[in-house]
Design a protein that fits this description.
The chain has 295 residues and is mainly alpha-helical. The chain has 2 domains: 121 residues, UbiA prenyltransferase (Tetracycline Repressor, domain 2, Orthogonal Bundle), CATH 1.10.357; 125 residues. It has 12 helices and no strands. Helix 3 packs parallel to helix 6. It is globular.
Length: 295
């Protein structure tokens, strides 16, 4: 029997959830907003950080899929995942998970060889803390209301902190608060849409929530996201930064419109499924690049 290696690789790439690596771009936010994007050592450090964190996140996705195999079979979308559909055996998933863990740990060490400000101890603490936190989430914490949402949000904050610690610089507290608020907005939106679409069939914690409760906090964090970003833009003492507020408001309004429609609310799926939203984010990126590095 001849294996079709293209199909095999495709299944394992799907298992890794590579499209979710988009979230790990937050690691670069520190050097971008501190005007260090073209600092070669910092950039290459964060590139290795991105790869290390991405492989570690794949370890977590695989472990979570192993834990959720039976429930995923009842979900209209998740039942197509490689483990839930039976395309990849559980034993092979465990082996692949260990390989990715080793690669992640090695990649996290490489910047230490050429960048003297790289904090190797703290980088490993943060990387493994993220792993342990999400293992606990997969095993138990995902079934505890509110805590399940906090774990999702902490994942985004840890990405920013990891990127910051590895290059030895920090960013504005207002930007941290913006990331915090946007993360809560996205996580709550995901839970709300899962509740509407599938009830508690695919996630036990959903039986503790209701639409009104989730909507209340979605609106709260949508508002705080705009406020915190506006406060950061105002501290930059430039009309050009204030101009970016309009782009951020448009992005959040467009995102909100999509998750109010026929969507399961997964942030990555929302981003890649709507061309206008993706275009607006690209426009924001180009605009901020010009403002930060050319004006």
């Amino acid at each position: 029997m001849v294996l079709n290696w293209g199909n095999v690789m495709k299944k394992y790439f799907t298992l890794m959830r590579i499209k979710h690596y988009m979230k790990n771009i937050l690691i670069f936010s520190v050097i971008i907003f501190s005007n260090n994007l073209f600092n070669t050592k910092m950039l290459f450090t964060n590139v290795f950080n991105f790869l290390a964190f991405s492989f570690m996140s794949s370890v977590i996705y695989i472990f979570n899929d192993i834990c959720d195999m039976d429930k995923d079979k009842l979900h209209p979308i998740k039942k197509k995942r490689p483990l839930a559909s039976g395309e990849i055996k559980k034993k092979n998933a465990y082996i692949f998970m260990i390989i990715l863990f080793i690669l992640s740990s090695l990649l996290n060490f490489i910047p230490y060889l050429f960048y003297d400000k790289f904090s190797i101890l703290y980088s490993y603490i943060i990387l493994y803390l993220y792993l342990i936190m999400n293992i606990l989430y997969s095993v138990k914490l995902k079934d505890i209301p509110i805590i399940d949402i906090f774990i999702l949000v902490l994942g985004f904050i840890i990405r920013v902190v990891y990127g910051s610690v590895c290059v030895g610089i920090s960013i504005s507290n207002w930007l941290y608060l913006t990331v915090l608020s946007v993360s809560f907005f996205a996580a709550l939106g995901k839970r709300r849409n899962e509740y509407i679409k599938n009830g508690s069939k695919s996630r036990n914690v959903l039986k503790h929530y209701n639409k009104e409760y989730l909507n209340k906090f979605i609106n709260t964090f949508l508002t705080s996201s705009i406020i915190f970003y506006s406060l950061w833009a105002n501290t930059m003492n430039s009309i050009w930064f204030l101009g970016s507020i309009l782009l951020v408001i448009f992005i959040l309004m467009r995102y909100s419109l999509i998750i109010e429609g026929n969507s399961f609310g997964d942030p990555v799926d929302v981003l890649v499924s709507d061309k206008l939203l993706l275009l607006s984010i690209i426009v924001y990126g180009v605009y901020m690049g010009v403002v930060l590095y050319a004006i």
